[in-house]
């Protein structure tokens, strides 16, 4: 039945996800989102990764009191449950309906030039909706992502993303060539830059060094592409605002290693600001720092 090879437990996980998404698809978007949030709040705090999330939150925001920590983590599970449910409705979202677009004026120079830019965000709000902004603005874009470990689940996720019309390229050795080809073809890139790396450059993140992939800075400096922050804010339930900020300033000191580090520091500072503003929006279950 499947062309992909997988282990028995991967088939179980795949069918579990497929059944859940099938049920969510039968519900109206708003109802599915609410139901997903309810499931997240009920089930998330009992999962082993909740302890990881709690540890990460204490490290990043140690001044939060106990009540604020509990509220943040419960809000995170609500958001993640909603994101899962909303995968079943990615094709139903549209700018001007469930999604507001703010800061589009910051893209006018880029759109007028016909040249590519590099957009970055994090696992914040519903990050999957960034594709809708690119589609709405008729902006050719390739999104870089980390492929799911389960090949069956990966295939399912790609089928759910298909209606957005944006090409997705998995991280890895092959991706580097694809990204350069995209930029040379004047296609913009979208990257989620908040995940842990086993290699990379140690860059401060909430006051603690976190291994950070340098690719976004290296590509931007090499191709002289603007680096543009974009985030997806959940307003309520299944309604969102996509905020596009002004491009970052690219240093030109003549010392490439120093310039790469400066760009990465600026990016992490932007991410920190977003997370401090809405800590419930971020993916705290991901092990961002070594030894966590």
Notes on the protein architecture:
There is one protein chain. The protein is α/β, with parallel strands linked by helices and 292 residues long. It has one domain. The chain has ten helices and nine strands. The protein has helices at residues 8-26, 29-43, 49-60, 66-87, 108-113, 130-136, 151-161, 173-184, 215-223, 256-277, and strands spanning 99-102, 118-121, 141-145, 167-170, 188-192, 201-205, 208-212, 227-236, 239-244. The strands form two sheets. It has a seven-stranded mixed sheet, with helices on both faces. Strands 6-7 form a two-stranded antiparallel ribbon. A hairpin with a 2-residue loop joins strand 8 (227-236) and strand 9. Helix 1 (8-26) crosses helix 4 (66-87) and helix 9 packs across helix 10. It is globular and about 55 Å long. The mean pLDDT is 91.
Set out the fold topology.
Elements: H1 8-26, H2 29-43, H3 49-60, H4 66-87, E1 99-102, H5 108-113, E2 118-121, H6 130-136, E3 141-145, H7 151-161, E4 167-170, H8 173-184, E5 188-192, E6 201-205, E7 208-212, H9 215-223, E8 227-236, E9 239-244, H10 256-277
Helix pairs in contact: 1-4, 1-7, 2-4, 9-10
